[in-house]
Predict the structure of Haloacid dehalogenase, type II.
Amino acid sequence: MDEDDAFSRRGDAVENQHPASDGKQVHFGSPTPLPKRDLERASRDRTARGALSPLGSKDMALKDPQPRCLFFDVFGTCVNWRKTVTDTLWAETRKALSSPASSIASRIRMTASDMTYDEWGGVAQEWRNGYLKFTRDIATDGNRAWKTVDEHHLESLREILTNRGLLFPRDDDTPVNLVHDGSLWDEQQIRDISIVWHRLDPWPDTVRGIQELNRLFWTCTLSNGNLALLKDMVEHAGMEFSHVFSAEMFKSYKPNPAVYLGAAEKMGLRSDECCMVAAHLDDLKAAKANGFRTIYVERAMEERHPELKEERFVDIWVGINEEGFVAAAEKLGCQILRARRRSGSAPQLLKQEE
């Protein structure tokens, strides 16, 4: 076999490779060739990871053209941000109050000591609400200066803590080695806490559901979180997306059409070959307006526009009492081994052959 023929054969092998076949490799930002659909081969694909095969088109919830890539909202859809953020704020408060090295002003110590876990949950929600307003403002006003979500999260946390009397006012350029000024946390601690969004924990069905969906589709984040944040979160949570996209790549935020259309273009797909998966109806409505198919995965306390339920634009609805992404995989035509379906445990990956 000559060198050119060998190179061609290697190229064919890569093109036909399923996204799940490269182990835990995740492509950050750059699409790779999409797999060719081979239903007969897929129907024989029974491994220790699961007997997953596409059903006939009549059994699939989405009719032709079938989606080739599933784009996922992340905050609230894939990860339980509320619990992770509240747990972190609560734990860091207890640590600061009990530390002999802390020199917290009496008034601030009293305020922090009186705050309950639920009240810190209110801080987490206020922090989240600020993020939603920040991204919406940039999405709707192209003249606003670009800023990453990480930058916003740090500024927003400082503002919230100051307004609640837990932090003395500071300039944004305060040195990280600032001597503690009597605030609940010093500047370095605040910066460390502000990146809690990099290490959010997934919902119980997230990791397994993505693994199942990877058998039939490309899976790709499409979040307003910046790439560095998403990369850390994907690795922390063990979410095996085949690609990681961020609104940062398109210099806007959802629901700006540039984000949805840019993601489809970067994957080399038509809009009707793309499907948005989210726990927020406003995100899905914007995706639908740009030609995407839509899957709603209901999550506790996540829906911010319940009135949109009456508009009935969702293609697949996964209810709060269903198993999230695993249920979505079943509705999309994945056949899941019954033994594993009952066990609820995450599947083990097969070791790749050398």
